[in-house]
Amino acid sequence: MFKRAPAHELGKRSLSDVVVGNWYYGFKCGHCKTLVPVFDDRSGGTQKISVFGGALEAVCPFCKGAQVYLPQQLEQFQFAGPRNRTQTSDPKLRSEVTDSSEDGTTARKQPFKQGRRYCIFCEREPPKIKMSGEHQFGDWLEELFPRDDTTRHTLIVADHPNGSVNDRPTVTRFDRQGHSGSIKLSVVCTQCNNEWMSTKVEEPAKPILKPLILGVTCGLDGDMQSIVATWAAKTVMVSEQSRETRSVIFQSERTWLKEHLTPPMGWSIWIGSYGGTEWRDLTCFMHPATMDVPAIGDQRPAKHNFEFTILGLGKLAIVIINTSAPHLHGKFSIPRLRQIWPIVDDRVTWPTDYIATDADLWQLTSYPIDFMRKTQDPSP
Question: Model-level pTM?
Answer without folding.
Answer: 0.68
